[in-house]
Amino acid sequence: MEGGGNSKGTGLGGLFGAGGVGYSHADLAGVPLTGMSPLSPYLNLDPRYLVQDTDEFILPTGANKTRGRFELAFFTIGGCCMTGAAFGALNGLRLGLKETQNMAWSKPRNVQILNMVTRQGALWANTLGSLALLYSAFGVIIEKTRGAEDDLNTIAAGTLTGMLYKSTGGVRGIARGGIAGLTLTGLYALYNNWEHMKGSIARQSL
């Protein structure tokens, strides 16, 4: 039976023009197929050459495997604008229906509701987009200045964003904006490091 297997493998190899050496069941018995389905013993191909231990993508010299703040800034700004527009549209619809609840369904009521939706959508999109722009700009500047990327950059950028956005409200406005930015970014950093913190606490308790 083993000889028949080898003869079939050689015949198929000759039919398709492959000049490789055929492998029998005994030859393939000790070949590790980690993460792969068992291959047919009649293929003139060594399965060991199909196992990839290297990275799938080739990065330029000095490039990071993760995106930096500058690359993520465009996604952050665009996402905040779209989120603000969607939230503002829903809020405008709610306000429009509330203000025109005593009116009958007619064209003037529809126009008034539509105006409220577009006004609120533009307002919230502008607000969140401006905050995202300031946050991304501060984040990129702090990252380039410090030469490192960590949660300290996130917290500092959020605090400075809140302070600058509320700077027209005087000292109290700056303080409130800074505290709000510090709180939000602090909670975000805590959420990102929650699993790491739980692992550290578990190791210390052992």
TrEMBL record:
Domain of life according to the entry: Eukaryota
Membrane-traversing stretches: 72-93, 123-142, 173-191
InterPro entries hit by this protein: Tim23, Tim23-like
Locations listed in the record: Mitochondrion inner membrane
Biological process, per Gene Ontology: protein import into mitochondrial matrix
GO cellular component: TIM23 mitochondrial import inner membrane translocase complex
Pfam families assigned: Tim17 (PF02466)
Keywords for this protein: Membrane, Mitochondrion, Mitochondrion inner membrane, Protein transport, Translocation, Transmembrane, Transmembrane helix, Transport
Molecular function per GO: protein transmembrane transporter activity
Lipid bilayer topology: Multi-pass membrane protein
Main location: mitochondrion
Keyword Protease: no
Alphabetical list of PANTHER family matching this protein: MITOCHONDRIAL IMPORT INNER MEMBRANE TRANSLOCASE SUBUNIT TIM23, TIM23
Record note on quaternary structure: Component of the TIM23 complex, at least composed of TIM23, TIM17, TIM50 and TIM21.
Function: Essential component of the TIM23 complex, a complex that mediates the translocation of transit peptide-containing proteins across the mitochondrial inner membrane.
Family of the protein in this entry: Belongs to the Tim17/Tim22/Tim23 family.
Name of the molecule in the record: Mitochondrial import inner membrane translocase subunit TIM23
